[in-house]
Write a structure and sequence with these properties.
Elements (H helix, E strand, L loop, with lengths): L7 E5 L3 H12 L2 E4 L4 E5 L5 E5 L11 E6 L13 E6 L4 E5 L5 E6 L2
Parallel strand pairs: 1-4, 5-8
Antiparallel strand pairs: 2-3, 3-4, 6-7, 7-8
Length: about 110
């Protein structure tokens, strides 16, 4: 399968504009396109994130994005309105959920 190249990750939303604005604000993603039914974001490293509302031609389910940080200090990380779902202090990682059950993992890079 050498012809396959990673292209993007997908997140689920019922209001793609609202979700795109939230993720852009929280993680400084650039907005490539934005609408109620489909939005596209890009990280500063060129990674693409699609946010889609389910439709007949777009079957999407909640997704996951993972980040690494140098120091995982939950007191210093404000990801509201994402909800802390789990935290494993010994392993230094945490999981957050948005209102559509998309998961955001934060890992401490050692």
């Amino acid at each position: 399968m050498e012809n396959f190249q990673f292209y993007a990750t997908n997140l689920y939303s019922l209001d793609c504009e609202k979700t795109a604005l939230l993720y852009s604000k929280l993680f400084s993603f650039s907005i490539v396109s934005i609408s109620k039914k489909h939005s596209e974001l890009r990280t500063n490293t060129g990674f693409t994130i699609f946010i889609d509302m389910p439709s007949v031609h777009c079957n999407v389910s909640p997704g996951t994005i993972s980040f690494s940080v140098l120091d995982l200090d939950l007191a210093k990380i404000n990801l509201e309105p994402l909800k802390l779902e789990s935290y494993y202090e010994k392993g230094n990682y945490a999981s957050f959920l948005d209102e559509y059950q998309n998961r955001v993992w934060i890992f401490e890079k050692k």
